[in-house]
Design brief:
The protein is an alpha/beta fold and 357 residues long. 34% of the residues lie in helices and 16% in strands. It folds into 2 domains: 238 residues, Aspartate Aminotransferase, domain 2 (3-Layer(aba) Sandwich); 101 residues, Alpha-Beta Complex (Aspartate Aminotransferase, domain 1). The strands form 4 sheets. The protein has a 7-stranded mixed sheet with strand order 2-10-9-8-5-3-4. The radius of gyration is 21 Å and the shape is globular. The structure holds pyridoxal-5'-phosphate. Pyridoxal-5'-phosphate binds next to helix 3.
Length: 357
């Protein structure tokens, strides 16, 4: 068996140990005679799996008691609508920070529900930095931002101040670094970037923000009803939750979020140090706002893109093509990407430059 280094932005690599354990347990989970896929979500086995996953996640991120952890469906994209439906609380407006493709999508969706005011934007420099001074309306229901722009490769390395609850789309750097949950009203993340398989969305929300949802909000989209039902108002994405639970165990065993952060810093440094030392490749993002998870880069001549990708595939590295909206290359180096994968990429980039530079 050979595992390839998959630099996909999502669905992305999962730890080999997790997949292998899931493989061992696929026909018979812990002597139950069943696959987790076959279990009733109301049965004691699965209820235990879900409770343990939540407990481990709370522990990994030190989630305060006054926050609910919800395990939902619909992806981060559904949260673009679900957030205003739940958090407007009858107010007419919400503020948004615009830093790239994903925040633009969130803004577009929110406009169907309320008046949207742009509190900060990096559009003036083609979304290549993270604006830290936000002009948030005091009567806004909340302010929303994307804390790691997956496509542009721009990450907020601290949480800016705001006079209203802060909502973050943390999809592509969730669990890659410690976060101070208490600074947020709500954080959400689709699982397929850094947590587990697609189909699961994690929402961490402060209790006092629950309830008073917009009229005609479907019950499965009402955070309060989901919280009261332990996220099982209807059948949850059971298998994705189980795999996420194994990923949480894997993270705990290797030393938790501070340890994975150390590794992520080292991996990103390897790649950015090389990018800084060459003129053959470029990265447009302001140095202090570079993402540790998603590293976009361009080759000096776009004609070399195809040969670059072909050579990478021959060396066991795939999914390096940049997002269709920006072109170039992108290496997504989430928690499960080993350091050796990044090293192999850098070695190949050097070799390619020698041949074509
Ligand atoms: C991938 C991604 C999304 C969309 O996730 P879906 O699960 O496809 O809805 C939204 N925001 C960010 C930052 C992402 O990286």
């Amino acid at each position: 068996m050979s595992r390839i280094f998959n630099f996909s932005a999502g669905p992305a690599m999962l730890p080999a140990e997790v997949l292998s354990r899931a493989g061992d347990e696929i026909l018979d989970w812990h002597g139950s005679g069943m696959s987790v896929m076959e279990m009733s979500h109301r049965g004691k086995e699965f209820v235990g799996i879900a409770a343990e996953a939540e407990k481990d996640l709370r522990e990994l991120l030190s989630v305060p008691q006054n926050y609910k952890v919800l395990l939902l469906q619909g992806g981060a994209t559904l949260q673009f609508a679900q957030v205003p439906m739940n958090l407007l609380h009858g107010k007419g407006g919400a503020d948004y920070v615009s830093t790239g493709e994903w925040s633009k999508k969130a803004i577009k969706e929110a406009k169907a529900f309320c008046d949207v005011h742009i509190a900060a934007s990096s559009e003036d420099k083609n979304f290549s930095y993270a604006p830290k001074h936000w002009n948030v309306r005091k009567d806004a229901a909340y302010v929303h931002y994307c804390s790691n722009e997956t496509i542009g490769g721009v990450e907020f390395h601290s949480v800016p101040a705001a006079p209203v609850p802060i909502v973050a789309d943390a999809s592509s750097h969730f669990l890659s670094r410690p976060i101070e949950i208490a600074k947020f009203g709500l954080i959400y993340a689709g699982a397929q970037k850094n947590v587990g398989p697609a189909g699961l969305t994690i929402v961490i929300v402060r209790e006092d923000l629950l309830g008073n949802v917009a009229k005609s909000t479907p019950s499965v989209m009402d955070y309060k009803l989901q919280a009261e039902a332990d996220s099982m108002l209807n059948t949850p994405p059971t298998y994705s939750m189980y795999i996420a639970g194994l990923v949480f165990k894997w993270l705990k065993a290797l030393g938790g979020v501070p340890e994975i952060e150390k590794r992520n810093v080292a991996k990103a440094k390897l790649l950015y140090d090389f990018l800084d030392a060459t003129k053959f490749y470029g990265n447009p993002v302001a140095k202090e706002d570079r993402s540790r998870m998603n590293v976009p880069f361009t080759l000096r001549d776009a004609k070399l893109d195809e040969p670059f990708l072909k050579g990478a595939a021959e060396r066991g590295m795939v999914q390096l093509k940049g997002h269709r909206s920006v072109g170039g290359m992108r290496a997504s180096i989430y928690n499960a990407m080993p350091r050796e994968g990044v090293q192999r990429l850098v070695d190949y980039m050097k070799e390619f430059e020698k041949r074509h530079g």
